[in-house]
Amino acid sequence: MKAAPARKNPERVPWIDWMVLPTVGVLAVVIGYPVIYTLVLSTTKYNMLDMVPPRYIGGGNYEHLISDPIFWTSLRNTVVYTFGSVIVSSLLGLALALLTESLTGWRFRSVRALLLTPWAVPFVVVAFLFRYMYLQNGGVINAVLLDVGLIDKPVLWLNDSALALPAIMAANIWAMMPFFFLLLSAALAAIPNEVIESARIDKAGTWSMVFHIKLPFLKSALFISSLLMIISNFNDFAKIWAMTQGGPGYSTTTLVIYVYRLAFENFDFGYASAIGVVWLVLLLVFALVYLRAIRMNP
Amino acid sequence: MNTKATNAPSQGVPAVGSGISVGRIVKYAAIALALFWSLAPVYWMLATSFKTELEATRINPTLIPVEPTLANYIGLGGQSLPFFAFFFNSVISCLATAIIAVIIATPAAYSLSRARFRLRGPISYSVLLFRMLPLVVMLAPLYLLLLNARLLDSLAGLVVGFTTFGLPFAVWMMKSFIDAVPIEVEEAARIDGYPRWQILLRVVTPLILPGLLTTGTFVFMEAWNNLIYPITFMTTMDKQTLPAALVLTFTGQFKTDWGGMMAASTVTTVPLMIAFFAVQRSMVRGLTSGAVAGA
C-alpha cells in the first residue's frame, strides 16, 4: 500500500478531510441534538403550560398513541394526501414530458417555461389562490361549473369533510406537477439517440416506443423524483394549514398538522414528540425500502 | 448544434409525413389544456389583484377587471400592516440562509466527493438521511433550544431553523456538482506544481460556480416557502416573514378583501419567480445530476 498508492489518490491531504467538520458540527447542533431530545421527550409527560419539568413515564405516550383515533385518522390522511398527490402529478408530468418531447428550439423552451410557472408560486400563495377559487360565492370554480351545468348549486369544496382533502390535493398537484415534468423531460432528452433510432428502424410504434424503450430509461428518474416528492409531501404544512388548518373536523389533519397542534396549541410536548418518533421510524423504513429498490433496479 | 439540427427533422418525420393527423391534433390539444391548467390560476391571481374589493367577490366573477385599480398594491404599503418589513424579513432571512448554507456546505461537499477517509460513507448517508427528516419532529426541541439561546423571535433564530433543511440539501446538491468535475482537471494543475488550496480557489471554484448559484437559489426558495418555522419561532408581528404574515393576517385584515390578498400574494410570488427563472437552465442540470448521483 505504502509503496504503490492508488493512481487516483496520489497524495493524502489531511485538511481536505477536515473540511467536512463545519457541516458535521452545525448538523450535530441543529439536527442531532433536537432528534435526540425528541427521543427523550417522547418518554416523558411534559406540558409547557404546567410549569413543571418533564417527568419520565416510559412508554406511556406510546400506549396513548395506539388508542388515539385522531392519530390513526391523521396517519391515513397523510398517506392518502402524499401518495395520491405524488402518483397523479408524476403521471401527469410524465404524460406532458412525452407530449412535449418532439417540440424543439424556442417552442420547447417557451412551453417548458410556461408549464413550470406553478413551481415558482410559493406554497402559501398556492393555498390562498385555490382557497379564493374554491369560494362558495364568488369562487371562479363554482361559477364555471354552474355555468356549464355540471352542478346546480355551489359546492362547499373546503367545508365538506369528504371533499376538503381532494380539493387540497388538486392544489398540491397543480404546484407539484412541473417538478416531475422538468425532471422527466431532462431524463427523456438524455436517452441516447442511437437507442431511439434503432427502435425506429425496427418500426416500433408510438406506444411500444414509449413502454418498451422510453419508460425503462426513465425508471431511475421517476424513482428518485417521486421519493423526493413523497418526503416533501409527508412534511407539507403550508398548503394544508393555510387552506383548512386541518378541518373541517379532522378530515384534512395530517401528521404534521396534528403534531403542530399538540405541541403549539396544547403545548403537550411529550405526546407530540412520541408521535414524531413513530413518524420518523415510518419514514426511515420507507426511505430504506425505497433506496434498496432503486439499487436493485439501476 | 450540428447533431441537433439533423436529428430534429428526422424525429419529426413520421408525424409530418402523415400530415395533420388525429394524433397530432390530440397532442396539441393536450398541450394547450396543460398550459391552460398551469397558467389560469396565475392569471386569476394577477387579474384579481387589480380588482376592487367589490368586484373581487362578485357572484359572477369578471374575467378581466372592469375598473382596474392599483389600490390593492398601494394599500400594501400604506396601511396598518408593515408589508415592507415582512418582505425585508423574508429576503434577509432566506438570503442569509442560502449564503451560510452554501459556504458551510461546499467545503464539506468537496471533502465528501474527493477525500477518502473512513467516516466518509457514514457522513454522506447521514446527510442524505437528515434531508428526509420531518421538520415537525424537531420543532419542539428546536423551539426550546432557541428559547435557551435567547434566539426565539429573532431573524438569527429563524436562520438557524432554516439551516436544518438548507444545509443537508446544499451538501447533497453541491456534492453532485463537484462529482461532475473531472478529477483530471485537478491532477493536471497539481502536476504543474500548484498547491492544493490554490487549485481549490482557482480551478475548482470557477467550475462549480453555476452549481453554487443553483444550490443557493434552491435553498432560498425552500426557505421562502417555509411556513412552520416562522409561525412557531416568531412572536412579534413586525418580525414575521411574508408567507407567515399572509397566514396570520388573513383571519383579520383580509377576511373579505380578496383583491388585497391577491396583491399581497403577487408580491410574495415575484421574488421567487425571478429566482426560479434565473437559474432554470442550470437547475435542470443540478437536479438530474443529483438524481443520477442519488441512484
**H/E element order of chain A:** HHEEHHHHHHHHHHH
Residue share in helix of chain B: over 70%
Give the C-alpha Rg of chain A.
25 Å
CATH topology of the largest domain in chain B: MetI-like fold
Helix amount of chain A, in percent?
55-70%
SS-based structural class of chain B? mainly alpha
Q: What share of the residues of chain A does DSSP label as strand, in percent?
A: under 5%
Query: What does the overall shape of chain A look like?
Result: globular
Strand order of the largest sheet of chain A: 1-2
Order of helices and strands of chain B: HHHHHHHHHHHHHH
* Tally of contiguous helical segments of chain A: 13
- Specify the CATH architecture of the largest domain in chain B: Orthogonal Bundle
CATH fold topology of chain A: MetI-like fold
Low-confidence stretches of chain B: 1-18, 291-295
Largest sheet of chain B at a glance?
none
Number of strands of chain B: 0
Distance between the termini of chain B: 30 Å
CATH H-level homologous superfamily name of the largest domain in chain B = MetI-like
The first-level CATH class of the largest domain in chain B is given as Mainly Alpha
Keywords, separated by commas or semicolons:
heterodimer; A: 298 residues; mainly alpha; MetI-like fold; two-stranded antiparallel sheet; 68% helix; B: 295 residues; 2 domains; 77% helix; 0% strand; disordered N terminus; disordered C terminus
